[in-house]
């Protein structure tokens, strides 16, 4: 019973706090669908053309692309928890800028920052949870992060069409604020601490995570994995030269490419406009999207 409480204690702690920021990132991802029609309306808070509105979607994706090399650097430099704190801080700033934006250019900057932060969060959060969670629920917890992102999309669909533009910003700020308050009190990843040659801190973190488990045995296993990682440090070209890496890369490129080439991002970012253009008669596009 104690061991079960230890395992699922992560669900109530690190898992919840990490995925709250992913809900906020999901809200940013789906934000344009209900908001662009409002910005193009006659009662928009500031004038916006269709061409300017289209860039609101593109800039988020450009920010995510630019954030990839930064994310690869940060997760090893300041750690997974530090990267999540930085990501949540950046998204919080983005929401504040959107809430008080006097013109479209301010929102462009906020969307780019949100893209940067979202990329970091969706890399750092699975790493953080996978390295903290018990191996029995590690895969389950890491995979649910994507569901939290979709929950954020659904949330902004439910709220944004019916309220002023600043209201979704307040909700997003709330999610990120909870993460920023809670995460500093959470232990860092034992993997990261051992990688940085901090065995005492790693032991303390593992004891906090597994108060009833055999922490010394697990710490030795982690240390062995870290030593193997350091001794077998790969090169970028190994993604193509090593057969197993090449196969994994092809699978990921195929799956991710198929998802985006099927217009998933276009649909999620423009669903309300698509339904409006389809000529819905019996139900409003804002309701049909939900």
Automatic annotation (TrEMBL):
Entry GO MF terms: transmembrane transporter activity
Membrane topology value: Multi-pass membrane protein
Species in which this protein is naturally found: Rhynchophorus ferrugineus (Red palm weevil)
PROSITE patterns: MFS (PS50850), SUGAR_TRANSPORT_1 (PS00216)
Membrane-crossing segments per the record: 82-101, 107-128, 140-159, 165-186
Membrane recorded as keyword: yes
Keywords for this protein: Membrane, Transmembrane, Transmembrane helix
Sequence ranges assigned to domain Major facilitator superfamily (MFS) profile in this UniProt record: 14-290
Descriptive protein name: Major facilitator superfamily (MFS) profile domain-containing protein
GO cellular component: membrane
Record lineage: Eukaryota, Metazoa, Ecdysozoa, Arthropoda, Hexapoda
Location of this chain's protein in the cell: Membrane
The keyword Membrane belongs to this UniProt entry's keyword annotation: yes
